[in-house]
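Subgroup meeting minutes
Present: P.N., E.W., G.H.
Scribe: E.W.

1. P.N. recapped why we're keeping a running log of single-chain structure predictions: easier to compare across weeks, and new members can see raw inputs and outputs side by side.
2. G.H. added today's entry (147 aa).
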Amino acid sequence: MKVILRKDMETVGRVGDVVTVKDGYARNFLIPRQVAYEATESNLRQLEEEKKQHIRQQDRERKNAETMAVALEKISVTLKMKVGEDDKLFGSVTAQMIADSLAEKGITIDKRHIELEDSLKALGIYDVPVKLGGGVTSTVKVWIVRE
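Output recorded in log:
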């Protein structure tokens, strides 16, 4: 049976692909879960419209991410932390702490989008990368200072 995929499936194909799968797999798994629909003439026309809408949605997301990236480049975050000997922090600075301090400045970013290789455990200035979606990445300057 030929079906049109609505979602990316690792073993089958990508969104919008017309693929041939076994009848039972299509009827019992793909179509009920709305991962795919049957490849008919009307559905092929609907696929073209969905592709256009998907492209428009991606363009909107990319533009929003680019404007957010410009705003993030201008912002720096200062975190006051308790330190011990040799200027080592008690604890560490996490992505959640950075997300919370950005929220105080009016920018809401999910902590999962903040890309810290490791927790920050020393005083200093750090450039922390932030993924914004649409393939756009920005950096936030994080100042860790003594409390």
